[in-house]
From TrEMBL:
It is found in: Cytoplasm. The keyword Transcription applies. It comes from Brevundimonas subvibrioides. Homodimer. The keyword RNA-binding does not apply. NCBIfam families: PRK11050.1 (NF008273). This is Transcriptional regulator MntR. It comes from the Bacteria. InterPro entries: DtxR_MntR_Metal-Reg, Fe_dep_repressor, Fe_dep_repressor_sf, HTH_DTXR, Iron_dep_repressor, WH-like_DNA-bd_sf, WH_DNA-bd_sf.
Length: 159
């Protein structure tokens, strides 16, 4: 611990060294943590919507099975999503999406489609493009997404 000049020597203080770019990096880390939380929410609401479209219902056990998590884990996430106004859950009933949840699921699907098509236009194989799009879709900015879409269109017209 370093004592700072001009301070009472009885006080023990820690000198904080300002690292160039530290605030920028801290902001980037904060954005990544927020994106990770949003990524989980997006995956869940997208899957709820897909299950309802495919089977007519979305049950906790189906979500847990599809995501490869314990039912207790899925239940905890669903509680958060309900608190955030994205899903509605009732005992012994199918999970449903709220309007906000439907908007989130649609936006996530659109981002996935744009990224997937961009990767395919670059020549990435279908399987790899699908896997990569799943990760990228949650972390891409609106600006980058617009550019992906525009470049994909240009590549299609050129090729």
């Amino acid at each position: 611990m370093a004592r700072l000049a001009g301070r009472d020597p009885r006080l023990v203080e820690t000198a904080v060294v300002q690292v160039p770019g530290a605030a920028r990096r801290a902001a980037a880390f904060r954005r990544m943590r927020d994106a990770r939380s949003s990524e989980v929410a997006e995956d869940y609401v997208e899957l709820v919507g897909d299950l309802i479209a495919e089977t007519g219902q979305a049950r906790l056990t189906d979500l847990a099975d599809c995501l490869g998590v314990a039912p207790a884990t899925a239940a905890k996430v669903l509680q958060r999503l309900q608190r955030d106004g994205l899903v509605e859950t009732r005992p012994y009933r199918s999970i449903t999406l709220t309007e906000a949840g439907e908007r989130m699921a649609d936006a996530s699907r659109d981002r996935h489609r744009i990224v997937h098509e961009f990767l395919l236009a670059l020549g990435v194989t279908g399987e790899t493009a699908e896997a990569d799009a799943e990760g990228i879709e949650h972390h891409v900015s609106p600006e980058t997404l617009r550019l992906f879409e525009a470049l994909t269109e240009r590549l299609r017209k050129a090729g």
